[in-house]
From TrEMBL:
Signal peptide: none
One GO process term, biological-process aspect: NAD+ biosynthetic process
Pathway annotation from the record: Cofactor biosynthesis; NAD(+) biosynthesis; deamido-NAD(+) from nicotinate D-ribonucleotide: step 1/1
Enzyme class, UniProt record, top EC level: transferase
Domain Cytidyltransferase-like: 12-192
One Pfam match: CTP_transf_like
Family: Belongs to the NadD family.
Function: Catalyzes the reversible adenylation of nicotinate mononucleotide (NaMN) to nicotinic acid adenine dinucleotide (NaAD).
Enzyme Commission number: 2.7.7.18
Protein name: Probable nicotinate-nucleotide adenylyltransferase
Organism field: Tianweitania sediminis
UniProt KW keywords: ATP-binding, NAD, Nucleotide-binding, Nucleotidyltransferase, Pyridine nucleotide biosynthesis, Transferase
Keyword Magnesium among record annotations: no
One of the record's GO molecular function terms: ATP binding
């Protein structure tokens, strides 16, 4: 895990990043700026239980690509989940919380993931561990109204004008951040690379 100190505000941005692209970098930059984070952990996962692993590039390659995709020194590319043999996000967040007392964390996700969030293992537990910032993605803008997660935790939604204090809120708390969007997609990039 990257080094942090008590009192820091840290964003957790996880994914397979297969491959990472400008859309991922944009989500990270928006989160850093709008949430006023000290750091953002770009967490490259060993795998995704909801996706096929046959098209998954080796972890070392995805880490290298992620490091090449980010320039901001506040972004820390890490793959600690592999070292701890953690598979599910709920377990990752529990581990982070236990090992970093006094650090304020917020889970960062693209709006495209919000639509399927209720299929994640123990998704209610995830929403109750750390605040969540959902960053707009093309084709997913209305997910903050229509997703199961948004409806379930409607009472915990913070206005995006208060985004900078989200990391100080007790979970469940979440917000939807509108802003510039990138049409890049890992799926489309892989499709173009296929013979």
């Amino acid at each position: 895990m990257p080094y942090v100190e008590k009192g820091m505000a840290v964003g957790l941005f996880g994914g397979s990043f297969n491959p990472p692209h400008a859309g991922h970098a944009l989500v990270a930059e928006i989160a850093l700026r709008r949430l006023r984070l000290n750091q953002l952990w770009w967490m490259v996962t060993p795998g995704n239980p909801l996706k096929s692993t046959r098209e998954l590039a080796p972890l070392a390659e995805r880490i290298r690509w992620s490091e090449e995709a980010t320039e901001d020194p506040r972004i820390k590319v890490t793959a600690f989940e592999a070292a701890y043999q953690v598979r599910y996000t709920a377990d990752t967040l529990a581990l982070i919380k236990a090992r970093n007392p006094g650090v304020r964390f917020v889970w960062i996700m693209g709006a495209d993931s919000l639509l399927s969030f209720h299929h994640w293992q123990r998704w209610r537990e995830i929403a109750s561990t750390f605040p969540i910032a959902v960053v707009d993605r093309p084709g997913s803008t209305l997910s903050f109204l229509s997703s199961v997660m948004a409806k379930t935790f409607d009472y915990a939604r913070e206005d995006e004008s208060d985004a900078e204090v989200l990391v100080q809120q007790q979970a469940p708390a979440w917000t939807f951040l509108h802003g510039p969007r990138s049409s890049h997609s890992s799926t489309a990039i892989r499709a173009r690379r296929s013979p």
